[in-house]
Amino acid sequence: MNKVILMGRLTRDPEVRYTQTNNTLVASFSLAVNRRFVRQGEERQADFVNIVAWSKLGEFCSKYFKKGQQVGIIGRIQTRNWDDDQGVKHYVTEVVAEEAYFADSKRDQDAESSTFENTFGNTQPGSMGSDFEISSSDDLPF
Fold first, then answer.
1. What are the φ/ψ torsions at residue 91 (nearest 5 degrees)?
2. Has residue 12 been placed in a domain?
3. pLDDT for position 12
């Protein structure tokens, strides 16, 4: 099974290009994913993972994802290689996105929502519109 689930912050705005053969949209970006544990006396480490999103999902990512935003990505790992014009072989490992989600906290979204609402209206793309909200850790059942 080849399945990857990541949550991290975009290191740059998604870059869009189109394939030469059938003009299919492809968006690429990088996620900074924090490592789970921090060694005592050291700063938190992060891995920088390249993400590729195709067609409609790529269009969604390019339209709504911005540098610094926290997102969740579900996809699969893919490796590929090619020879450049000088005959040098290149290898790349990336995650091909199959699903993409907004993952910023409500507080973080509120800081950006006034600008978004002035541009697009009240509903954020990808938001569930749920009335469910946890006000403190005392509300959690575990």
1. -125, 145
2. yes
3. 96
